[in-house]
Specification:
Radius of gyration: 16 Å
CATH topology: Peptide Methionine Sulfoxide Reductase, Chain A
CATH superfamily: Peptide methionine sulphoxide reductase MsrA
Largest sheet: 6 strands, mixed
Number of domains: 1
Strand content: 15-25%
CATH class: Alpha Beta
Structural class: alpha+beta
Shape: globular
Distance between the termini: 31 Å
Order of helices and strands: HEHEHEHEEEHEEHH
Number of helices: 7
Number of strands: 8
Helix content: 25-40%
Length: 204
């Protein structure tokens, strides 16, 4: 956690986050809020998908006042590093987004951590915005368990969306802007390559 903060603070431009509604589909657009470790990698993976028009890194699960990177990184605010994904259901389905989330973007068996990052702010969580999303997410998890896709228990939380606060500007599109950043090279670029191998039909 701290090794990410040190370099980033040199370039940080801190902006106050404002809540963003994870609303239902409008004009062929829908939202889903997903958490699965560092939002850099999550953002980079989902930005690579056809039918996804926007991915915003931010914080879900805590208060507006505490929605700042240095504070969230203490693991005491209740937030999870999350991505707000805007997509066209006519081009990519919610089920396909779940495929990418569970099978590429993160490991849903890691409790309150993801790879090298440790703490509840890196937990696996789906912040559903509709009851249909809740039902489909729970059914998907049940299917993974039935098929024994993972040898360890799936710990992904499926919880209602309350508020989303965009992260500071320097976090947005971090993988695109910093492709050679060591953390990206080691932890996140392999996820995008895995995406291209597993779901080439979904990649832009």
């Amino acid at each position: 956690m701290m090794y990410r903060i040190g370099v980033l603070l040199l370039a940080a431009v801190l902006l106050g986050g404002q809540p963003k509604a994870g609303a239902a589909a409008q004009n062929h657009r829908a939202h889903i809020l997903l958490a699965g470790g560092c939002f850099w990698g999550m953002e980079g993976v989902f930005e690579s998908l056809k039918g996804v028009s926007s991915v915003v890194s931010g914080y879900s699960g805590g208060s507006k006042d505490a929605a700042h990177y240095e504070t969230v990184s203490t693991g005491t605010t209740g937030h999870a590093e999350s991505v707000d994904i805007t997509y066209d259901p006519g081009k990519i389905s919610f089920h396909q987004l779940l495929d990418v989330y569970f099978l590429v973007a993160h490991d849903p068996t890691q409790l309150n951590r993801q790879g090298p990052d440790d703490g509840p702010q890196y937990r696996s969580a789906i912040f559903y915005t509709t009851d249909a999303q809740r039902r489909e997410a729970l059914a998907y998890i049940n299917d993974l368990r039935t098929k024994k896709t993972y040898s360890a228990p799936i710990v992904t939380q499926v919880v209602p969306f309350h508020a989303f606060y965009p992260a500071e500007a320097y976090h947005q599109h971090f993988m695109q802007k910093n492709p050679l950043y060591p953390y990206i090279v080691i932890n996140d670029r392999p996820k995008v390559e895995n995406l291209r191998q597993k779901f080439p039909q979904l990649v832009r």
